[in-house]
TrEMBL record, chains A, B:
<feature type="domain" description="PurM-like N-terminal">
    <location>
        <begin position="25"/>
        <end position="121"/>
    </location>
</feature>
<dbReference type="InterPro" id="IPR006283">
    <property type="entry name" value="ThiL-like"/>
</dbReference>
<dbReference type="GO" id="GO:0009030">
    <property type="term" value="F:thiamine-phosphate kinase activity"/>
</dbReference>
<dbReference type="InterPro" id="IPR036921">
    <property type="entry name" value="PurM-like_N_sf"/>
</dbReference>
<dbReference type="GO" id="GO:0009228">
    <property type="term" value="P:thiamine biosynthetic process"/>
</dbReference>
<dbReference type="InterPro" id="IPR036676">
    <property type="entry name" value="PurM-like_C_sf"/>
</dbReference>
<dbReference type="Pfam" id="PF00586">
    <property type="entry name" value="AIRS"/>
</dbReference>
<protein>
    <submittedName>
        <fullName>Thiamine monophosphate kinase-like protein</fullName>
    </submittedName>
</protein>
<dbReference type="InterPro" id="IPR016188">
    <property type="entry name" value="PurM-like_N"/>
</dbReference>
Length: 284, 284
């Protein structure tokens, strides 16, 4: 069992819906965190790590058209120096993303952990699962982070862009008209994870890779499988929207996949997609 | 600088009020957490630790007369086994305390960290600082936890009661009539911390120790300073209310201190109280 299966079973016991936000009487609630031991990248500063965790929570509420009202942040750290830097990054992200950071908690512990809670006003209620016939659109900027994880010391423009995305993610993408959208998710654990999560009771067929040429070229040049970089990257904080067919969604979005009748498979190049993004506590 | 001074300076920068809950447009918000490395007691199971963190957050909102609506919990743990036990304890506490546990997050990390966010409906807005002339009331059950920290292996009734309080705190105390209350706090970091925090712009004079005879006797018998056990215990999750003089507040509450004109001192036995409860990141 990995953490997603565990959370699924827990949500079922709580009688709660599986979604990226919790809807409750006109509010939408989100708590999202990460620990440095497993999630801080070697090139991230403590400020970056604070920023990243705010952006991750914000990305989840934005992709659901939630209007964020208040943010609370709890920080755990071994030393006050690290905590202070993390909180400074939280503050910077709050400013950049127009979040009202109203308070939090600070505790001493054996790892640096940042938990971000956002309380927002719910918009239209949007789930994770598209309907057969829907088209999947996203912003075609996958692969940068996947390359950055591997080659972050290098001075290649695609790598540098990936590093910048990972240090200071800014999930401020425009939103398609809400009446077009039937389901949505943001990519935090990789596009493969998004697609496999969305493919419940429908199949999703990937038509083209939502990645720019410089990414595809660099991956090929370095002998990294393109699918690995595009589907198994993670931390892109890019949105995937399922939209009704015929609902034209313009730039920066591109159509890259479609939902069809099926039993929950993700298909690419006529085969089941073997990249599933990543998950904690996975035993393989 | 300890974590309280740091949080104070941060709240000042955020323009936020120093209080145990954040008030926002009719809502009251709370996030509260702890890490096992610094806060889990040797006799607590992982379930106890999960329970304790829910009770700690709940205690803060209850003492402010907030009606809790929703709870989100983020759990970090090195292994899924520990996380599952912690979450089970969270569930048990939610049931016991009538909290609606609507969802959360689960992450892998180097320490077990539990962050609990509660969204509630605000009642009357209650701060931390009493007015001169107010009387301080509490439930006279201090000292049990202070003894339990020291003697938890022993089979003494006062120690066993302290251990039970620490394993499964149940902050379900009755609430005084809200129109009587001018300020409130709960004791999580010790009664000394509560009193020093409340004493801002007023002095607080302690008249009697809110501790039962069995506690005072055991402390004396073991040569532990009574003040140390009563003021520096912590994790009692007992409420302290400042009430208008003449507002009779009945059982289980007792009057134990009063607020008088002053400059922020806590006085006991004609001297400044030297116990200040505890704080993380303190350098002495």
């Amino acid at each position: 069992m990995d953490e997603k299966e565990f959370l699924r079973s827990l949500l079922a016991r709580l009688g709660a819906e599986e979604n990226d936000v919790v809807y409750a009487d006109g509010l939408a609630l989100k708590i999202d965190g990460a620990a440095a031991a497993t999630s801080k990248l070697p090139f991230q500063t403590w400020r970056d790590f604070g920023w990243r965790n705010v952006a991750a929570a914000y990305s989840d509420v934005r992709v659901k058209y939630v209007e964020p009202l208040y943010m609370l942040v709890s920080v755990t750290a071994p030393r006050l120096e690290e905590a202070a830097e993390v909180i400074e990054g939280v503050r910077e992200a709050a400013e950049r993303l127009s979040l009202r950071y109203v308070g939090g908690d600070l505790n001493q512990g054996g790892d640096v952990v940042v938990d971000v809670a956002i309380v927002g006003r719910a918009g239209p209620r949007i789930g994770r699962v598209p309907k057969p016939g829907d088209v999947l659109v996203t912003i075609p900027a996958y692969g940068y982070t996947g390359l950055a994880y591997r080659f972050w010391g290098e001075r290649h423009p695609a790598v540098e862009r990936g590093v910048a995305m990972l240090k200071r993610p800014e999930p401020l993408w425009p939103l398609p008209p809400p009446e077009c959208v039937t389901a949505s998710m943001d990519s935090s654990d990789g596009l493969g994870d998004v697609l496999w999560t969305m493919a419940k009771g429908v199949d999703i067929v990937v038509k083209r890779l939502p990645a720019p040429r410089e990414v595809l070229e660099l991956a090929e040049e370095r002998g990294v499988e393109v699918g690995e970089v595009v589907f198994n990257g993670g931390e892109e904080f890019l949105p995937v929207f399922a939209v009704r067919r015929g609902c034209g969604v313009g730039e920066p979005y591109v159509e890259f996949a479609e939902a069809v009748e099926g039993e929950g498979r993700v298909v690419w190049e006529n085969r089941e997609l073997r990249w599933r993004g990543w998950s904690y506590f996975r035993r393989t």
